[in-house]
Amino acid sequence: MEPDDISLYATTKALDPLDNFTSLCKAAWMTHSDGIFFNSNPLHYSFPLLLLQIFLASGVMLLMKVLLMPFNQPTVVSQILGGIVLGPSFLSRTTWFARNIFPLRGFIVIDMITSFGFMFLFFLVGLQMDPWMLKKFNRKSCALGFFSVALPMLLTYTFSSVLINFTNLEPKTNYSLPIVSQAESIIAFPVIAHFLTELKIINSEFGRIALASSMTSTIFSFCVITYTVLSHYTTGDNYKMITTISTGVAVVVITVFFIRPTILWMICRNPLGEPLKESYIVALLLAILVSGFCCQAIGLNAYFGPFVLGIVTPSGPPVGTAMAEKLDHLTCWVFMPLYFVKNGLLLNIFSVNFKKYLTVQFIAFIGALGKFLGAFLTSFYCHMPKKDAMALGLVMNAQGVLELVIFKMFRSSKAIDYESYVVMCIYMVVVMGVITPLIKFLYDPSKRYQVYSRRTVMHSRPNSELRVLACVHDQENVPTIINLLEALNPSKRSPLSIYLLHLLELVGHSNSTVIPHKLTKRHSSKADPSRYIVNAFRYYEKNSHGFVTVFPFTAISYYKTMHDDVCSIALNKRTSLIIVPFYKNNGAMANKKAIRIMNRNVLDKAPCSVAVLVDRGVQITSRPLLATWFSYRVAVLFFGGADDREALAIGARMAGHPSINLVVIRFLANGSVVGDNEEEKRFDSEVMNEFKHRMAGNYQVMYVEEVVTDGTGTISVIRSMENKYELILVGRQHDSRSRLILGLEDFAEPRELGTIGEVLASAEFLGNTAILVAQQQNAVHDGSDYNIGIFRDKYLVEADAEDMPIRRINV
C-alpha cells in the first residue's frame, strides 16, 4: 500500500487521515467474528468484512454487466462503473457506508489481495502474448501499428503544447498534459485481443489484422512508456536507471534460459494427451509468486516477473490450458472486481474542476482521433474496405485494465495529478461505451463468407476434383468420417481433396491458431494433440491409390468463434462440402452445448454446403475402411427442397462405389408431391427424373416411393428402417407446412439437424445407424442452375429410366 493511496482514500471520503489511522492498530483476535448473537459486529472483523466486500464487488459488477447488456457494452465498462458506484462518487458518499463497508483498514486488505491478483493477471497477460507472431509481421501490419501510435502522439503533443503556451491553465495541468498525451496514445495488445474476443471477431481476417497491428503498436508503446516511467522514477539518478534496466534484462535472461527449459521438461514428462500433473501446476503457481518476490527484492515491479514468466510459458495444452483454467475465473471474478472497487474508491468524479475536465478530455479525444486516423488511413491505403478500415480505427481505441495500471503508475510517480487521473478513467468509460456499438454496426464478420458461385456437391462439375473440409473434434470421429469420405467414391477421374481440420478448444491464449501440418515431415510439439488423427488420415491417403489427397490442419480456438476458422478455410480452399460431427451422446453437457452452437454458426455462415454427421454408435467405428466391406447400405430420404436435393446429389455420388447399395425413399402425400411452391416442386421433379434416368442400369440403386398422410406415417416409415442401413442421408430444412412432417415439430424441436434430422438422431430403434444431415449452400439463385446435368459423372450409366427398380408403398 502506497502512502499516497492511503491519504487519497481518506481525502476522497472527507475523513481526517490521522483520526482514522488509529483503526489500523487492531489486536490479533479482531480477525474472526463470534457472531451477532454474541454481540459481535462482523463488520468490525477483517475476515467477514473481506467476504462482504468480495460479494459486493463481484455482485455489483455482474449487475452492471446485465443492465448494460442491451446497450452492447463491453465488460470493462461495467467493471469501472461498478467501482465508481461503490466509491465516494455514489454509495461511499454516505458516511455510514464508507466507515463500515469500506473502512481504511479494509482498504489496506483489499490492496494486498489485489496485488496477488495482479501477479496472476500479468502472468495470464504474458501467457496470451505469442512472441512468435513477430515472425509473421509484414510491412503493412508494421506500418499500421506504427502510425496508430505515432500519429496520436504527434497530435496530442502538438495540441497540449498549444494549450500550455496559449491558455491560462493551472501549473499542475501544464505539467500533466504531455504525459496525458503519451498515455492516451498507447495501445495494449492483450486489451485489443480481449476486446476482439468479446466481440466474437478475433478469428476473422479482420481480427487477425487488428491483432498483428496491435502487437506492433504495443512494441512502440512499450518503448515510450518504459522511458517515461524510468525517467520519472529515476529523475536525476542515472545509476538507478542503469541498475533497473540491467536487473530487468537479467530477469528476462534467467527466465528464458533456466525457467523455460524446466517448463519444457515438465511437458515432456507429462503423458501425451493427459491433463497437466497437479504437482506441475502447483510448481508453476509457486513460480509466479517467487518471481514476483524476486523482482520486488531487487527493486523491480512485482508484476514484471510473472509477466515474463507468462510469455515464456508455452500456450495451449497442456501447460497454458491448465494454468488458464486454474487462474482465469479466480482472477476475473474475485481479484479483479476488488481491484476495480479499489480504483473506484480513489475516484471522486465530483471533485474535478470543469475546466480541468474539458482540457484533459480534449487531449484524450485528440488521442482517440489520432488512433482512428492512423489506423483508418493506413488500412484504407492498403485497400481495405472503407467500413472495415473505420472499424479497425475504432478497435485501436480499445482500453482496459492495463491502461488503468499505466495511469496509476503515472499518478504514483507524480507524472500526472489526481484530477487528470480521474478524467482519464472517466474517458475510458466514455470511449469504450461509444466505440463498441459502432464497431458492431460497421463490421459484420459473416459477410466475408458470402460467395457468388455455387459451391455444392450438386453443382460440382462432372469428372472433376471434389473438395471436402472434414472437421474432427477427437479420435472417435475419425473412423466414421473416413468411411464417409471413402463412400464419396474417389477415383482417377474424380479425385477427392480432403482438408482435415482438427478442432481444439482454446484456453490460455489470446488469439486463435491454425497450424498446417506437412504429412512428410516430423510432427512438431504443437501438433501432438493431432498426431493420431493426422496419422489415421495419412494411412487412408496412402491406401487410396492416389485418388485422395489430405491437407491436415489444427485449429485452436474458442468454441464460440470456432466457426470462423472452419468458414475461412472453406472459403480459401474453395470447398464444396463441409462435414462437421454432431456431439456424442455420452459427452459432457458443456461440450454438447458448445459443439451445437458451433455447428449452428457453421450452418448459418458457411460459404458452401454443410453436412452434419451423427455417429450413433460403435458399429461403424469398429469396422475397417469401407473399401474392404462387402456391402455398405445407404438410404436417402427425399421430402423435397434444396437440402434434400443436395442429400440426393451426395447419395448419387456414393452410388458409383462397388460396395454401396443405395436406396432413395421419396415421401409422397396421397400419391402426389406436396408443397405450395410450384417452382420448388418442379425442381424436385426434374432432379428426381434425371437421377432415375442416370441411375438406370445400376442395380445397386433402388428407388422407393412411400405414400403417407401425416407425420405419423413418416415415423412409421422411419421405424421400418431399423437395422437395415449403415448410413441415412436427409436434408436439413423442409417446408414446415408440409403434411409429411405434420406433428413432428412437437416430437423433436428443430435445431441444427432440422425436424427430420432430430427425429432420426433421437430414434433409439435405429441402433448404430449413422445419420448425415445435409444443407445446401445458402445463396440466392434464379433457378437456372438446376437445369444442368447435375448427375453426369463418371460412375453413371446411360440407360432408359424404365430400367430403374421402383417400388411404391402406401402407409
TrEMBL record:
Q: How does it sit in the membrane?
A: Multi-pass membrane protein
Keyword DNA repair assigned to the entry: answer is: no
Task: Please report the stretch or stretches of sequence annotated as the Cation/H(+) antiporter C-terminal domain.
Answer: 632-777
Single GO MF annotation: antiporter activity
The UniProt transmembrane annotation reads 47-68, 80-98, 104-129, 141-159, 179-197, 209-230, 242-268, 280-304, 333-350, 357-377, 389-410, 422-443
Q: Where is the Cation/H(+) antiporter central domain?
A: 495-618
Q: Which domain of life is it from?
A: Eukaryota
Q: Which Gene3D superfamilies match?
A: 1.20.1530.20
Q: Which GO terms describe its cellular component?
A: endomembrane system; membrane
What's in the keyword line of the UniProt record? Ion transport, Membrane, Potassium, Potassium transport, Transmembrane, Transmembrane helix, Transport
Q: What is this protein called?
A: Cation/H+ exchanger domain-containing protein
